[in-house]
Amino acid sequence: MKRAALLLAVTALLSACGLRPVYSGGSSGPVAQALANVEVAPIEGKAGWLVRNALEDRLIHGGNGPRYQLVVKLDDNIEGFGVRADDAITRERRTLRARYQLVDSATGTQMVDATAGSDVGIDVTSSEYATIAAEDTALERLSQTIADQIISRLALFAVEEQRSAASASRESK
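The structure assignment produced for this chain is given below.
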């Protein structure tokens, strides 16, 4: 009984705080419409190919053409840090960092300039094939993580843009 009352109280408090779902409005909402108008510029290298594909998978296609261009520069690094007594590396850290910019295609104005990044640990085994496979799998996971971070930031930009447009229209009345 106490749990139900507590749950009801928390629900009432959260509903009064003004929180709204980012993707409210479904495919006609401001976030979906903004993401539908983003074109991802080609990104160099294998990591770039993976990140670009992950971004394309997350973007909603079918807008009125690209209003924005997303430019991404990547830094992919593998560093050995676990060392045995015989100087053999036993652990690696793969780090993928992205600097991305959302540019208005019509004006060339930079709307968002941000970074995203993640890293993952890799066990180095006596099998070179297994180590290479682990490094590739790590890059695939990192690409997905970076794409999620970028899309989250673009969704936040779309919400902020919609709020500023709404407040500007209210002030002009």
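Interim note for the steering committee: The first helix runs from residue 2 to 16. The helical segments are 2-16, 30-36, 45-58, 128-172.
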